[in-house]
Amino acid sequence: MHGPELLLLLLGALLVTAVARRLNWSSPLLLVAVGLAVSYIPGLPAFDLDPHLILVLVLPPLLYSAALDSSYLNIRANLRPIGFLAVGLVLFTTIVVGWVAHQVLDLPLPAALVLGAIIAPPDAVAAVTIGRRLGLPRRAMTLLTGESLINDATALTAFKVATAAAVGTAMTPGKGALVFLAATGGGIVIGFAFGWGVQQLRRLLGEGLLESALGLLVPFGAYLLAEDVYSSGVLAVVVAGLYVGHTAPRTGYSTRLQDAAVWRSVDVLLEAFVFAIIGLQLRTILSDVDLDRGLVVGSLAILLATIVARFVWMYPATYLPVWLSKRIREREGWPHIGKVNVIAWAGMRGVVSLAAAAAVDPRVEQRNVILFCTFVVVVGTLLIQGMTLPWVIRKIGFENDEERQDALAEAQVQHRAAQAAVDRLDELVDEGVPAHVIDRLRVIAEHRGNAAWERLGRQESESPAAAYRRLRRTMLEAERQVFVTARDTGEIDDEVLFRVLRELDLEEAALSRE
User: Fold this and answer.
1) What's the rounded Cα separation, in Å, for the pair 312 and 156?
2) Rounded CA gap, 48 and 184, in Å?
């Protein structure tokens, strides 16, 4: 794939994503459909891409970005159920899907296990987005997020072990287990060390732009370093991302603002790119396999096994520990069956499966059959589970009072924070500070202290805080227009305009978060 073709692909993928968001459609499904349709245009150049580049250039930044936005404390508090999902379920799915593929498609068992490892890890991005919009309880969201971060490391390590066996490399079950444990432990240690080192280096840099630029190198550096010493690069990226994200509040505000904007843009671009590549390459995959009735039925059987395996695992893994342990039962209570059903249904496959499938060693027997089945499972789960998950969540219905609890906790802490700000103001005030400056600072502190309490009140009428935000945004826009007009008439330089606009934009960003 040459430069112009790659730019055309990225631009087209972003446009299709924009259309999907505007129409509230599934972006992955629309990208796949459009990519498949475009692939049949006569004379279109082949969009061939080195599969290993996907694992190195696409997967690490996506995982790192997700880890930055995840809560280390929530994941640590739910490590047991996340472990059951991210490790136990992945290995269980690998075995189940591998056995089914071996039976229905007559794949050699090592090649069938390669397929099982590829299909095993769900991609929870869509599920988390839907759940957040529809008010899924926080613990369920934490389980889905934590699973999606760690299961990739489990699946890709199992993928390497199965691939080694499939291409004839000596790999006994015992040796495979040792490889898995070594890769996991090495990935955790390297990820923590890398994240800690990056944070120390950021403190030395002390400039938001340089710190954000350094952050762009973290996922690639952690991944490559871990892979070079035969550890889990994926787990190293996740651990580094969790550490950097957990310590981000101690960095400067400009670094946080820039990181948030940069990584959201990276997520959109890379996810659009991957699903567009699926559609464009689907025609080639179809032409490379003998698409007979047996393959179609077999791939659908694998899709069914993938969905059913998650349900078979979920209920005993959820309820047996609670039933067997009084301590867990007293701390957590009996899990809500609706939450279990939603998590079991949120098993859509995505980017990781596609990247691993593209990287299958050509020496693996019936490689094209593995690729075809992977595409069927990814598209099938997105279509069946992804399209119906919002309906499932609405049908079950959740009485979620976490939003009000969060608002109450925020209001209490915000009140203390505002009081601390006023106390610090009193300590620093001297006779040389004008009285109107002090009064203005007190008003701002009181406004922030009262805003969260007002959000807890009645919403039928506009609160004072809401009126403040609405009027202040209007004032900010008026200020912008004056400065833009002054720049257009040559009264001020662009450099002055950009500096002022940044100050106004930061204030509006603060208003939007209140």
Assistant:
1) 22
2) 32
Round to whole Å and give the CA distance between 87 and 110.
20
* Angle between helix 435-455 and 402-428 (nearest 10): 170
| Three-state secondary structure string covering 338-365 | HHHHHHHHCCCCCHHHHHHHHCCCCCCC
Q: Which residues of 168-179 are buried (b: 16+ CB within 10 A; e: fewer)?
A: eeebeeeebeeb
- How do residues 166-179 score in pLDDT, each as one tens digit? 886 655 667 767 87
**Tens digits of residue pLDDT in 393-423:** 888 876 655 556 665 666 677 667 777 877 8
> Shortest CA distance to 350 belongs to which of 140, 159, 121?
121
Domains of the chain as residue ranges with CATH: 3-400 (1.20.1530.20), 403-513 (no CATH)
Helices 253-288, 3-23: crossing angle, 10 deg rounding: 100
Instruction: Give the model confidence (pLDDT) of 107-125 as tens digits.
Output: 999 899 999 999 999 886 6
Phi-psi sector, 349: left (phi>0), alpha (psi -120 to 50), beta: beta
Please give the mean pLDDT across all residues of the chain: 82
Residues of the chain with pLDDT under 50: 458-460
Query: Cβ contacts of residue 313 below 8 Å, gap of 6+?
Result: 84, 88, 89, 92, 93
Q: How far apart are CA 112 and CA 360, in angstroms?
A: 12
Two tokens, residue 322: 């609670």
Identity of residue 414: Q
Indicate the helix (H) or strand (E) that contains 275.
helix 253-288
Which two three-digit tokens encode residue 203? 């403190």
